[in-house]
Task: structure prediction
Amino acid sequence: MMISQCYKVPSSNVLSQSYAMSAPFNHLLTSNGPPSPEDAHNLRTYLSYPKNRVIEIRRRVELLRIEMAALNAEQDTMGERYAIDQHEAILSSIRRLPTSVLQTVFIYGVLAAESVMETHFIIIVLSRVCRRWRAAVLQTPALHATAALGMSQRLMTYFERVELITTTHSLVYDMLGCFNRAFFYMLSLC
Result:
């Protein structure tokens, strides 16, 4: 008589906990005595399916790990070879936004600034994103309608230290740039 006929071996691939608890050898789990030769044979037969299944699962898991490593490597290679992220950026919706709408968004961003310095910082950041944004910033007079005449000594010292503003001439040049780009908008001097 086969062990599967004596003991109900589950048909599913996963042995449930209730099955393990109702195993026919539970009485041996609670004693320290050796099993009888017949119990030992039946126990080996009983355990053959789950042990083989665990070995098979481990082998498949290892194969899947190897396959996953290979797929991850291929994914990285494809991304690098075809520059997928850079090319998808070409399709971004911000690139399709008309320049006039972009300029309006810039104006609202500058209007939300809390100080003149923050306004200038926003304008500088926007103009450094890409050529198109720089052109849009330079072609939007309303963005340049605020000019900072007074810079704090601390900020001026910082600029001199990093050599962004080395002479009064460059500050004046920056101010004239604001005047020119403001065009016909009212200029706010702070």
Q: What stands out?
A: The mean pLDDT is 74. The first strand starts at residue 146 and ends at 147.
